[in-house]
Amino acid sequence: QQQQQQQQQRLPQKPPAPARYQAPMSAYDVCVIGAGVIGCSIARQLSRYELRVLLVDKSDDISNGQSKSNSGIVHAGYDSPSGTERGRLAAAGNALFTQLDDELHFGFRRCGSLVLCFNNDSRPVLEELLENGRRNGVPQLRIVEQDELRKMEPNVSRDAVCALLAPTAGVASPYELTIALAENAMQNGVQILLEHEVTNVRHCAEDGSRRFVVTLDHRPAAPPLPSAAAVPPKRLVACRYVINAAGLHAAEVARFVEPHLPWDIHARRGDYLILSRQQGALLTRVVFPLPDPVLGKGVLVSPTYHGNLLVGPTSRDPSESPPPSPLEILARLVKTARRSVPAIDARFAITSYWGDRAR
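Now predict its structure.
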């Protein structure tokens, strides 16, 4: 019997069952998904109140999506359809930018914009934009004729017969605006969590609390430093409200709560070219062609807040196969822009970029 007990003791012991991982849970009043200009602006506004606010983004920095790769133009609001929420808010939002820049100092200049008309047959389209803008409450809108247009912008194409002038339009640095909004929100107590992707949103109305539980997966952009504190691979966030500001991914986030979402988001890719400040002196205002029903505002030519000249965007399908070469894209871009401003010289190009935007 003693020998049998010794044999049993020498048998390998069954390892204990591993402990089930418990993701840490945090409680907030509001979880804002997406740290672009919309999400950061909402977070800043919420920071005015006694609320626990979390701003979360899957990227490794603020403003890494649509808010980084765009034209940086603060539109006057004449082309937003009147009678819609967008039409109602466009001019009102434009008017806020002077005070916003006074508070945050991100850099904004109200330079005005022009929509060029190249023949009298298209003049009714320009007049409709004028009337639509007036219905939206856009101030100081008017049509300028050819002689006045030449005096205002000598480098605009001589083929332009008239233009719609919107003095309230302006230019800003979009990523600096977004970062300034986020910094001010943080100063007021908003917590920002980067490199965390939303993988589920669950509505817990059945337990009477009417709260949401947001699942976040840690997705680091690079291996952590040896000295860095350990970050849990998964987090749970309990909150009373979830605000979906996820940009191109907003439909994916919405489907966590409403699987049969009746709408979707499709990206259009826009290419831009930035030229030196020598070319930036060609214009004092943003110059648009007449808008296209399919392509939108078309290829604009604009001075930037920092004094360069910006040309773009194109509008193409990101999944186009085979994709056009960078040289083809930029050649097409310059050719189109020269219709509005013939003096554009691509030899002064200093960089180019593209960005996807939601449609």
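The CA atoms of residues 99 and 348 lie 35 Å apart.
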